[in-house]
Amino acid sequence: MYRVVIVDTQHEMAKAIEQMDFWRIRQDLELVGIEQDENHVMDCLREMKADIVCVVTNHRHVQDIALIRYIRQRLSDIYLILIGDDSSYEQVRGGFLAGASDYLVRPLSEGQLDSAISRIYEGFGEQYVREKLSLKINALIENIFLGGGNTDFICESILEQIYADWGNDAVNSQVVGERTKKKIYEELIQRKTWLEKFIYDKRYTYQMGFMVKTKERIKREWKRDFAQAAKVVKKYQMLDNKLIYHIGKYVVVHVDERLSLEDVSHGVFLNKSYISRVFKKVAGINFIDFMTDVKIDRAKILLRDEERKILEVASTIGYNNTEYFSKVFKSKTGSSPSQYRETLKV
């Protein structure tokens, strides 16, 4: 059961929403509070343990955008729906940049609200998978090293456990529709591919180097690898804004391709200049710097394979010029790829 709070300084829209049949039809939702005083909003949300907040604008868009930003900064896991009376690009854009999960225009129908809630459920599902998978990745360190076994089996076991956990949660039947399940399945398949690639690379290194390395040293290397892998995953998990998260996820998933800003633009169906501008404004970092960081993090993982030439590492993450790759790598890490590889032998 998800808990909903409506924030409406004039109470009129909140009252209309409260009287909708929507609440009786949707057994998975509960309207737990209506708050008129914006000075008490945070207290209300914490007391009511809200999962979803509907903020109604009353011809005071600037103040309400500021309120949404204020809530987002303090309650990063909450989902925010902004209900306004203006569908202009700037108003909608302002709402999303502030951290709103959705923007609805008055007059509000039950169908609009139902669709917005369904979209939010997709977000709940994605968040669930990200959190579960991060835990599973950390738990893999010992299992993979000690157990050996088939890469497919390891990945399938992780994903099956997530499915099993999901099935035991309350979100399964009522909350997650078929469309959402399909989307989450696609997300898991993407992660499975990434895990397979990573595990295969490491198992190859392990098998080839076993005769010349001690078990403890190999174990230390694997732990460092997984710490690095977790770091890559977290780079886009930390991007709270839904749009920015979507862009960041695309970069991480496609990091082994010759990825450019133009490629990302085509991949997420957004203008290049818009991506750069919004990423800087919302995430606080330059998009090219973010993309470079992800590539260098991936390069660190690849460099642990001593059989892989630096030229191959550079090419894998999209650098045709090895000298330029080395220059970028050094600017980010303080050492050249060769020097970094030497530190791994310590």
Automatic annotation (TrEMBL):
An individual GO BP term: phosphorelay signal transduction system
UniProt keyword annotation of Transcription regulation present: yes
Tagged with keyword Transferase: no
HTH araC/xylS-type domain segment(s): 245-343
Highest taxon above the source species: Bacteria
UniProt keyword terms in alphabetical order: DNA-binding, Transcription, Transcription regulation
Domain Response regulatory: 3-121
GO molecular function: DNA-binding transcription factor activity; sequence-specific DNA binding
Known function: May play the central regulatory role in sporulation. It may be an element of the effector pathway responsible for the activation of sporulation genes in response to nutritional stress. Spo0A may act in concert with spo0H (a sigma factor) to control the expression of some genes that are critical to the sporulation process.
Entry protein name: Stage 0 sporulation protein A homolog
